[in-house]
Amino acid sequence: MLLGVDVGGTFTDAVLLDARGRVHTAKVLSTPADQSLAVLDAVREVVSHAGAHARDVTRFAHGMTVATNALLEGTTARTALLATDGFTDVIELARQNRPHLYRLCQAAPAPLVPAELRFAVPERMGPDGPLRVLDADAARALVHQLARAAPQAIAVSLLHSYADPAHELLLGALLAELLPNTHVSLSCELVGTFREYERTATTVLDAALSPLLASYLAALSRDARALGVCEPQIMQSSGGLTDAAHAGAHAALTVLSGPAGGVGGALALAQLARQDDVLCFDMGGTSCDVCLILDGHVAETAERTVAGRPLSLPALDIHTVGAGGGSIAWRDPGGALRVGPASAGAQPGPACYGRGGRQPTVTDANLLLGRLLEDSPLAGGLALDRGAAERAIAALADELGLDSIACAHGIVRVAEAEMLGALRLMSVERGIDPRRLALMAFGGAGPLHAAALARQLGISRVLCPRASGVLCALGLAAAAPRRDAARTVMLRGSGSGSGSGSGSGSGARALSAELLSRERAALIAEASAALGITPARVRVRYELRYRGQSFELPVDEELDRQGLDPGGLRDAFAHAHEQRYGYRDDDADVEVVNMRASVWGPSPALRPSSAGAPAPAPATDVRPIVFDGEPVAARVLRGELAPGTRVSGPALCALAEATLLVPPGWHGEVDAQGTVVLVSAHENVPPQNRSAVKRVTK
Length: 698
Hints:
Layout: E1 2-7, E2 11-17, E3 23-29, H1 35-49, E4 59-63, H2 66-73, E5 79-84, H3 90-93, E6 118-121, E7 124-126, E8 129-132, H4 136-147, E9 153-157, H5 166-178, E10 183-186, H6 187-190, H7 196-227, E11 232-235, E12 241-243, H8 244-249, H9 257-272, E13 278-283, E14 288-294, E15 297-298, E16 300-301, E17 304-306, E18 309-311, E19 315-316, E20 319-321, E21 327-331, E22 337-343, H10 362-368, H11 386-400, H12 404-426, E23 438-442, H13 446-457, E24 461-464, H14 471-477, E25 482-493, E26 509-510, H15 513-531, E27 537-546, E28 553-557, H16 566-581, E29 590-600, E30 619-627, E31 630-638, E32 646-648, E33 651-654, E34 659-662, E35 666-670, E36 676-680, H17 690-697
Parallel strand pairs: 1-4, 4-11, 5-6, 5-9, 9-10, 13-23, 23-24, 25-26, 31-33
Antiparallel strand pairs: 1-2, 2-3, 7-8, 11-12, 13-14, 14-15, 14-20, 16-19, 17-18, 21-22, 24-36, 25-29, 27-28, 27-29, 30-31, 32-35, 33-34, 35-36
Helix pairs in contact: 2-7, 4-5, 9-14, 10-11, 10-12, 11-12, 12-13
C-alpha cells in the first residue's frame, strides 16, 4: 500500500493506493504551528477509511511546506558563512539588476547571514588548482574563532570549489570534529556548478533551513514509527523522492516540495487521459501553482528564485501566485478591489468556516454566488456558514459602494485575473499558443474556476481528475526516488558544425566525444551511488551557450546510449536556440558549460480506480448559481461520477474533495479513470481576441 500525504496552507491531504489500485482519501485542516499533527491525523483517517492497518503501508511519501514557510517567515537558523578571503560579501553584493525595475527604492531581501557572521578563509582555489593553499593550522584556528560566534548552522562556499573541493572538504572535516552538533552545508556537495553568488546563496539557504527541517522530520519519523507507519520519503523540488535523513541534511532540496507532488499527479493522469500538452493549475486554500506539460514532459530549471533568493538546484518549472480559496479580499487606498496575497489559511480560515474568521475570501464569495453548497460539507466534514460569508462580504461591499452579490462576483473575477496572469506567463509569454492545450484543474478550488479561465485563454478542453482535491497527495504516492549530480565542465567546440575545437582561453577544454563520455559516466556513477539502487531511468542534461553569452540553454539526452557526439550536441543546441530566440549561428563557438545527470528508481504504476462498489447515480437537484452577475438555474450533482456519466452546463458537481463548476455552453463525460473531460460547445476564443484570430487565419 502506497501512502502520500501533502501539507497545504489550509488542508492536509492523504491518499492511500492499495494493491488493487483503489484510491482512498482523507482531508483534514492543517496545523501550521506543527505540520506533523495534521499529517498524523490524515494518516490515521485514511488508513481507517481503507480498513487497513498502519503496518500495511509499504511506502510513505510526504510533501510539506516547512522549509518554504521558514524562508518566507524569516524563522531560519542563526547561520555563519565561511568564504574565500575577499569574497565574504558576495551574498550581499549579489547581482546588479534591481529586484523590481520600476521601484527604484525597493531593495532585495537582506542576506540570511549578517556581516558579523561572515568569516574569511585564508585560501584561494583556481579553476586549475590551488593558488593559495589552505594551511590546516590556520583552518583549525578559524574554526575555533567561528565557534565563539555560536552559530546554529554553517555554510561553506569557497571560490572554485566546484572544480576542486579539497579546501572545502578540509574545513568540513574540521567542523565535524570541533563542532559536531552544528549543521554544516558544503557547496561542493550541494551545488557543484559555477557562478559564485548563486552557489553561495544556495548553500547559505540550505544551511539556514536544514536545522529546522531536520528537527521536524526527526519528530515526524519518530511519531510515524510509534503509529506503525514506515519512515517517510520526502518529495524534492525536482519531483523525486529522497530519504528523510538526506532531506533534513539538505533542506534546500525541498523548498518546492508541496507543489512538486501535484505536478507528478497531473503528469500521470494526463498520460492516462492521452493528453501530451496540458496547462495545469493547482488552486488550494492559500496559493495557485501553475505548470506546463509539453510532449508528455514537465520542464525543469536549475536557476530560479524563491522569496527573492536564488536557488541553483534542480526544480520543476512551477509558477506560484497568491490566489487561493482563502485569499483575502480588500480595498486598496485608491478604492480598487484587490484579492490576496494574504490568506486566511487554516486558522481561522475563511469566514464561512465558522472558526472565527471575519475577513472576506474567495471561498466566501463562491458560497455567496451559489458555487459552493451550504448543505454539502467540504472534504473533511467542514460545514459552511452562509450567514458568516454574507456578513464578511457585506462589510467589504459597503466600503466599495456595491451590493453583496456584485462584490462577491468582483472578488472571483479579480482572483481569476491573478491566476490568468500566471497561466499566460507559462504559455503565451513563452511563445506557446494555449488554444492547442488542455487545461487540467486540481486542488480543492481549481475546478470551480477552470472553465472561466479556459474561456479567457481560448482553451476548449478542461480536465478535472476524480481525485482533483487531493492530486498532490496522489502524485506523492506514485512518485519515484531520484538523485542528481551536476558539474561545470567548460568544453568548447569551434563553429561551422565541426563539433570540436582548440578550447583555448577561459580555462575551457576542447569539446570531444571522449571528454563528453568520461564526464557523463562520472556524473551518472555519482548520482547512481547516491540513489543506492540500479536506476530505472537515466537522463543527462547538457547546458550550452554560444561563446560570449551569459546564460545557457539545456539539451536533454534521455536515450539509452553512450552520450551525444559533439556534432549532434551542437545541432541540438542550435535548434533549441532558434526555437527560443529565433535565430542560430552555425559559425560561432559553442561551449558546454554544465552537465547534469538525474537518475530515478522504479515508480509504481498509477492506475487509480474507485475505492468501493460502483458508484450509484449522483443525487441531483436544481439551484440558482450566479454566472456573469446573473443567477441561472443550474443542475447540482452530488457524489461520485461514474465513468460514462455525461455532464452539461449550467451545472455544479459536488465531488468528494472538490467542486466542479460547469458554465452554460460546456459539456463533457467522465472517462475510465474518473476524470471529467469538459468541452466547450462553441469555438472557445476570448471575445477580445476573436478578430485577431480571424486575421491570422486569413
